[in-house]
């Protein structure tokens, strides 16, 4: 944070915007001091994740409630296309019709939810932090607040961990506890007692690697996108503070427009990839080695 009385440097600006609004379990404002600290949670990520999740569920519920057999409106048509796309992918990857009754809607919700969280990156970098500061925090500086939940590793790993738990659930449900337990020690090297420890170790490594890569992929792409938007914002900020260098203002507008248009593809693609990997991993949980 810049000291009172002078504008922040570029490094201070980015460092400040990369700081989460963090609280402890007594809801006191704190800052995390270690790499892993389970006594601190990112309140901004929890807030926006919850609000956007409720918004996603509400819109899907409203589309289902307003659906009719006649000529659909644009909103209903868009939701129907989305539902059909997810349903086709679920049918291709999960052959258990009973499982699809839960997995299909879950995958649809995951796609819409992650798309909404990713889309928060399209808002101006300083808008929500400034709004929060002016109307809630009453602080002379921007509030610590990051509004893209998927640029927070705790959010994406939380989502991928939930997918892991669903995989465990379906492994046990489809194969039985004994059947899945036998699979854990019999694959991939073969069902021989001397190979059981190696099979089990490889299975655990596979589960951990899939979960970590599932969350890290989404986090890495969204964090990079957020950082690029901050760098573009610095161009406009530099021109606004100095009043000179019209090239900075023009570059800010051009770069912001181009990156925003490209980022529409990124946020959609990342939501789709996360949904597809969810279906693939759950499909694997239904298959026997």
List the topology elements.
Blueprint: H1 10-17, E1 22-24, E2 40-42, H2 43-66, H3 74-93, H4 97-119, H5 127-137, H6 153-186, H7 196-242, H8 246-286
Antiparallel strand pairs: 1-2
Question: In words, what does this structure look like?
Answer:
- The protein is an all-alpha fold.
- The protein contains 8 helices and 2 strands.
- It has helices spanning 10-17, 43-66, 74-93, 97-119, 127-137, 153-186, 196-242, 246-286, and strands at 22-24, 40-42.
- It has a two-stranded antiparallel sheet with strand order 1-2.
- Helix 6 (153-186) packs parallel to helix 8 (246-286) and helix 7 runs antiparallel to helix 8.
- The longest helix has 47 residues, at 196-242.
- The chain is globular, with a radius of gyration of 23 Å.
- Residues 1-5 have low confidence and may be disordered.
Summarize the structure.
The protein is mainly α and 289 residues long. The chain has helices at residues 10-17, 43-66, 74-93, 97-119, 127-137, 153-186, 196-242, 246-286; strands at 22-24, 40-42.
Keywords summarizing the entry:
8 helices, single chain, 289 residues, globular, disordered N terminus, two-stranded antiparallel ribbon, mainly alpha
